[in-house]
Amino acid sequence: MSDATPISMPARGTRRGLAEAASLARSSFARSPLSGSALAKPIARIGRVSAALAAPHPALWGLALAVAAEVVSHVTLTEPVVGYVVGLVRATRADAEVETGASPRAAAMLATAARARAVLDGRDYVLPDDVKALAVPALRHRVLLSPAAEIEGRKPEEVLRRLVDQVEAPR
Questions:
Q1: What was the pLDDT predicted at 10?
Q2: Dist CA 4 CA 21 (whole Å)
């Protein structure tokens, strides 16, 4: 390792740092033959460079989020699926084991999460299965169980799973 040139990594996420990291990666391949033990140096350098490049530039985070939000907003949410979301939220307010049910805002957030899940699955439309998959994690912190349910040792997740099973999903 005595012949190894010390590498000072550029600051993460800076434009200059990204350019330096890319230059470092190119020079790793330009100076070393890619065979045998000589391959170890470029691999080690690429590992360090990839760590520097792993975090996107902070200026791009806002842009990436804005683009993602725009894509999600264009996902089709049919009336039957909206009715299903509303039915699930209403069921939380009508259930005897729930003291305080989910709000209309919770319904809006569940619908948005279902849209995002559809995008992640490569679809431009929401399925009832998207809503089912996200109902428990999206609503568990939005409901308060009744004292009787808590005494019986019930968990919000159990009650919500039961409600998801009870409320009929559109076909």
A1: 41
A2: 17
103: left (phi over 0), alpha (psi -120 to 50) or beta: beta
| Rounded (10°) CA dihedral 68, 88, 131, 76 | -60
Q: Contact, 171 vs 127, CB < 8 A?
A: no
Contacts of residue 67, defined as CB under 8 A and 6 or more positions apart, other chains included, come to none
pLDDT of residue 66: 83
CB proximity list for 115: less than 8 A, separation 6 or greater: 72, 73, 75, 77, 126, 130
Contact partners, residue 147, CB within 8 Å, separation at least 6: 99
Report d(CA 23, CA 39) in Å as an integer. Answer: 18
Tens of pLDDT, residues 44-88: 555 554 454 455 667 667 777 888 888 999 999 999 999 999 999
In tens, the pLDDT along 81-113 reads 999 999 999 999 999 999 999 999 999 999 999
Q: What is the dihedral sign for C-alpha 24, 25, 29, 35?
A: positive
d(CA 52, CA 10): 7
Got the DSSP string for 109-171? HHHHHHHHHHHHTT-SB--HHHHHHHHHHHHGGG-EE-HHHHHTT--HHHHHHHHHHHSPPP-
